[in-house]
Amino acid sequence: MERHHIYDYSLLIQYSMFTQLMLEFGIVGLIGGLLGIFYRNCLKVEDMIFFPLYMKVFRPWAKGNNPILRFITYPLGYCIYCSTTWITFILCFLYLSAWECLPQWQDIVLGVVFASGVQHLIVASACRWLITGHPDLDYHELQKKKANKRQ
User: Fold this and answer.
1) Containing domain of residue 39, as a range?
2) Could you say which of 24, 75, 88, 145 would form a disulfide bridge with 82 (CB–CB 3.0 to 4.6 Å)?
3) Percent over 90 (pLDDT), the chain
C-alpha cells in the first residue's frame, strides 16, 4: 500500500526560494535607495563633487525650453525619485546578470517592483525626515544660511 504524505515538500521548497528571492530584491532596493540618497547629496550640496554638474548642466536643462533636455534631466539627477529608480533598475539588472539560470519572468517582475518599492520608501523617508530642515542638505535651509552670511 502506497503512503501519501500530508505535506507537499516541493511547494515548501518553491515558497522558500521565492521568499529568499524577494529578500534579495529587497536588499537590492535598500542599496539602491541609499545609493540614490548618496548621489543626491553629492549632486545638490554645495562644495560636493557633482555640484558643478548640477548647477551648470542639470539645472539649466530643467529650467530651459527644450522639452527633450527637460525630460532627460530628471532621471539623470534633477529629481531624486527618478534618478534613484533608475539606479535601482541598474542594480537589479546587475544582480540578475550574475545568475547562471534566471528565475521565472513573473518572479523577476515582482522582484523588480518590490525593489523599486523599497527604494521609494527609503527615499521618501529620507526626504521627509532626514533632508527636510537639515542645515547642509535642505535647499531652504541653505538659502537661510547664505542670507545670514550676507548680513
Assistant:
1) 28-97+104-150
2) 75
3) 56
